[in-house]
Structures are given as structure tokens and as C-alpha cells.
Amino acid sequence: MDEQKRAQFKKVLREIKNLPTLPGIVAKLAKMAENPDTTTEQMGRLISKDHILASKLLKLVNSAFYGFPQRISSLNSAIILLGFNVIKSLIISASIFDVMEEQDVELWEHSLGCAVVSNVLARHLGVKDPEEISTAGLIHDLGKVAIKMELPKEYAMITELSQEKKISRLEAEREILGLDHAEVGSWLAKSWNLPNKLVEPIACHHDPQLAKEERVASAIVHFANIMIRGLGYGHAGDIWVPPLNNKAWKLLDLAPADIDPLLHEIEEKLWDVKGFSLDVQSVPEEAA
Amino acid sequence: MQRIMLAQAGPGMILAKEILNPEGMVLCGAGTSLTPGLIERLAGFEIFDVTVEGHPVNIEGEKTLREELQEIDLRFQRVEDIAPLMYLKKRIQARLVASRSLEAVTK
Fold first, then answer.
1. What is the mean pLDDT of the segment spanning A242-249?
2. CA separation for the pair B31, A222 (Å, rounded)
3. Does residue B57 lie in a domain region?
4. How many contacts does A have with B, using Cβ atoms within 8 A?
5. From A125, A167, A210, A230, which residue has the greatest number of CB atoms within 10 Å?
6. Are residues B46 and B9 in the same domain?
7. Is residue A189 part of a domain?
């Protein structure tokens, strides 16, 4: 790989001109969160000013991949239950996935599915803040969207190479760009000041052994990506189930007897999110 | 279980999942056997799809069980040397076979 070319791709991807910029509201919320006197009501009020964003957030929060037993009807309770980090990443996801849903429905489905599986695994393992891990699952392929938007020509070349040589999309990205979607996604997440709990699983979802602080979260998203591909839900660019990292597998400490109950729960939840869309104004098509 | 449009629902089919109205209130519980009157009422509530037990409706273009099993084989083709993933594949296939075999029972 030509170092110069790699640097050039890196520059383009880091500048991200075509992806929606982070809504101004996130910066405002971040400022509010720094102030210990800020109340949940104040944050809720700020988000409510953007009606569409507010309804998207509630829709996401109430969808099967967060798995709250009761319906959350107000932004205030959503903020209390999910915490500021999750709300922030949800606002980001809502903006990113607007683009993604339009551009690549199958990748969107894959992402939703990965969020569902991440949530089920996180709850099974009893980790703290399973919502954050679901969110990491939801945005783990962020880098793919960025590559598609910023480098459409190379994106097409990657698709072609992957089909021609029958190699995974990841390998094709590395060959053509000298970098991959996991790396790109982690730059983006970092540039948006997302917490490490989201950045590391995005960066390491193919190489969870590289995770330094968020080992469990990275292992969960790694295995969630494998499971959702195994189930054939959505499409992430190539059909193959990626290899399982042994270290991550040991960390998850799953027994064969765990697999069936997990699959059962995942299938139930996937059933519920099928056709989930963030488009708050859309009317079900079946109605026509 | 199968998700079908309400227009495809027929009497005797059994709800596999409860039906909720847009506010999240339960209109009809899982396990309910559909009747013509009930289907009509659900249409009145603007319910468009329902999830029923088994696989009672043949949807055109839908993959057969054999095709789906083959696709699973293909997806796992590159990880055949990784034991936990081969177990995962076996379970995914077994669950698919079990869910489809219900078709015969309900038909």
C-alpha cells in the first residue's frame, strides 16, 4: 500500500464533509452535562424543542433493542434511565442512520440486529449499562457509512474486489484503502467525543484482543456481529460469518447450554424490531 | 411463527404474539384463536399485520427450508475450524428446522 495514498484517504475520511454534522444540540447538551446544577428537566426541555428528534429518541428507546419492560413515554425518564452518554450517542445514531437507512437498508438492518444481540448478551453477562453496549452494537459499522459517503469510488471498488476475489469486505477495504471501517468508525466516534465505551468496541469489533479498557464491551460487540451474521439478519457487505477471537470468546465465558436460550431471546426480539424505522412520519406501507 | 398481513389472516389461526395498538395497549393476547368477527374488529383498529403460530401462509418468493439451511452452511463456510461457531451453526439450523416443522402441524 502506498503510504501517501493511505494518508490521503485518511485525510478525506477524517474531514467527513458529506456525513451530517453533529447536530448543534449535542454540543449544547454536553455543556449542560458538565454543569452539576443542570437538571434532567432542563435537558429534556432542550431536546423537546426539536420535535422530530424527540420522537425519534423515544421511538429508539422504546424499541426492542433496549429491552425496557415498561414503555418510556417522556424524555425525562429516558434521560434518567439511559444516562447522558447513551442519549448523546442516540442523537448521533438518529442523525447518522437517517442517511444510512436511505442509503443502505440492509446495513441498517444488520446494525439494528447487532444492537439487539449486544443487548441480550450484555444482560446475560450482567454487565453494567447494557444500553451503552447496545448503542455500540448499533453504531459498530459507522465506518462503512463514512467510506460510502466520502469515498464512493473506492467503496464501489471494495465491493467489486470482495466479490471478485471472494474475500471479506474488511480484507478488501484493507487492500484498497490501507485501512478498514473499524478504524474509520473509531475516528468518527472519537471526533464526536463519544465515550471510550463506544469508541473501543467500534474500533475493535473485528480484533477484540486489541481492546485495552473496554474488553468485555468489545468482546460482546465482536460476538454479536458474528451471531447476527450467522442468523442472516440484514446484510453487512459480504455473507461470511467472521472468525471468532479466542480471547474474546474466553472472556464471554459462554457455555454450550447458554446458546439456545440466547438464540431464543434474540429471535423474539428481532421479530419485534423487524421493519423498525426511525422515520417518524412514515405510514406502514402495508396500509396501501 | 409467521408475521402476516391482517388480510391474509383466517379463522382458526392462533396469535403467536399479542396485538398492541399504537399506544402500546394490548388489544388481543397471544394464544387467541382468530375468528372472522375478531379479524374485522382488528381491521377497524387499523392493525395491518399479525404474528401467528406455525407457518400457515405461503408467501411467494419465500425461501424453502432447504434453501435456508444451505445459506446458513454458506455463511459459516469460512469458520469451519472454529468449534464454538460450528456449534452455533448447528443450533441455528436445528431451531430453523424445528420452527418450520410446525408448518406441517398447523396445515
1. 96
2. 37
3. no
4. 67
5. A230
6. yes
7. yes
Residues of A in contact with B87 (CB under 8 A): 256, 259
Look at the pTM and tell me if it is higher than 0.95.
no
Question: Closest to B92 (Cβ–Cβ): which among A231, A239, A284?
Answer: A231
How many structural domains compose chain A? 1
**ipTM score of the complex?**
0.81
* Shortest CA distance from A229: residue in chain B: B75
Work out whether the CA dihedral A194, A118, A208, A101 comes out positive or negative: negative
The CATH number of whichever domain residue B32 belongs to comes to 3.90.105.10
* Of A24-28, A262-266, B47-51, the least confident: A24-28
CATH number of the domain where residue A126 is located: 1.10.3210.10
For residues A258 and A263, give the distance between their C-alpha atoms in angstroms, rounded to a whole number: 9
Percent of chain B with pLDDT over 70: 93
Structural domain contains residue A281: no
Q: What is the mean pLDDT of residues A173-198?
A: 89
* Whether residue B71 sits in one domain with residue B35: no
Q: Tell me the residue length of chain A.
A: 288
Closest CB to B85 among A244, A274, A287: A244
Tell me what pLDDT residue A284 has: 41
Instruction: Express each pLDDT in A27-74 by its tens digit.
Output: 787 788 778 888 888 888 888 888 878 888 888 788 776 767 777 888
Q: Do B76 and A230 touch (CB under 8 A)?
A: yes
pLDDT (mean) for B1-17 = 88
Pair (B48, B70) in one structural domain: no
Chain B residues 64-103 within an 8 A CB cutoff of chain A: 68, 71-72, 74-79, 82, 84-85, 87-89, 91-92, 95
pLDDT at B104: 43
- Asked whether the beta carbons of A102 and A167 are under 8 A apart, the reply is no
Q: Rounded to an integer, what distance in angstroms lies between the CA atom of residue A121 and that of residue A141?
A: 18
Distance CA A271, CA A277 (A): 14
| Sign of CA pseudo-dihedral A248, A250, A252, A255 | positive
Domain membership flag for residue A131: yes
What whole-number percentage of chain A has pLDDT above 90? Answer: 41
Do B73 and B43 reside in the same domain of the chain? no
For A67, other C-beta atoms within 10 Å of its C-beta total 17
Q: What does the alpha-carbon distance between residue A18 and residue A33 come to, in Å, rounded to a whole number?
A: 28
- How many domains, chain B? 2
Q: Is residue A146 included in any domain, yes or no?
A: yes
- Please tell me what DSSP assigns to residue B14: B
